[in-house]
Amino acid sequence: MTDQNIITQPKRQELLVLRTLIVIALLCVGNFFYWFLQPELIETPVLFILLTLVMVFDTLRVVYIWYHYWTISVPAPPVSNTPFTVDVFTTYFPGEPYEMTTQTLLAIKQMGYPHTTYLCDEADDAFLKSFCQTHNIVHVTRSNRINAKAGNINNALQQATGDLCLILDPDHIPKPNFLEDIVPYFEDDAIGYVQTVQAYYNIDESYVAEGAAQQTFHFYGPMMMSMNAYGTVNAIGANCLFRRKALLSIGGHAPGLSEDMHTAMQLHAKGWRSIYVPKVFTKGLVPASLTAYYKQQLKWSRGTLELLVSVYPKLFKSFNWRQKLHYGMLPLHYLSGIIFFIGFLIPIISLFNASLPWRGNVIRFGLIYLPVVMSIICIRIYVQK
To answer: Any stretches that span the bilayer, and where are they (predicted)?
Structure first.
């Protein structure tokens, strides 16, 4: 996602071209599997089942992405006449650099829309408490640390009184126009939260940072832009402006390793709507080392899979069908490593057993599968243009 100020709604002809490409691609996929699954081409049933599992999983992931491309949209900024009161929260955990926290706090103070700034301090740090007093920032702390970040935010919510609350990570530096541009979307009383792009200022720090950042561009681009129409916009946990009434309706910010997704699930189950605005209003830090990157991915994978098992079944009946699909499919992304490993093992097992999972003509395979590959590439290039 680039740091541009204006992203326009796709033109009608652009959507028509994109949807035509998707239809053609689906026909190519159907044609491939119609040929690939013919019983007479099966040689070793067990290996064939494993191979089919790998191919079907990867195909469903691609089709699910195409499903999102179908309704890419950019919400028009509304005109607001309502004077909302706003609280802005950022957090501090022991060991985080003072400079990072104070830089973010000062940037929050510079935001144009009238608001109250809160530091949710898990350490009750004397330096930060003094800093807050000097700069007219509300310093909030607590005696226990239950529910991690969610508990920290909920503790501050008990003292805050604003109609809206913006949650920022301590490394995300906001632009002055953040609130001025986003608050008007709450003119619609049904809106529970508005999510914006998560961008980064340390992309050039390392190859890992660059790769980790680029991995998010597609998600914060066409994927999230389609969720406006589907009612499935993800809350990311930072750069997200919530309606206080919405949060209170679910008992505050939901806890867990993926507290942002948990909160979004609870709000959607309650009938609150959400909006994604594809603009960069803050920039923060992306993991710059493999250790930090894997730690982040492990946290997200554990969190989303826990929600799939423990929360999703309880809220299932409250979701519309698109939300059921969304929250059921999203955690499966983290199973891709297992699927890749199965695909890696198939040729090794075939080599040692001197048996193949499938005995179709390789040249014909290439000719039938090539249109599928070309469709995937063409659609991805077109949608990212």
So the answer is: 16-36, 48-67, 332-356, 362-383
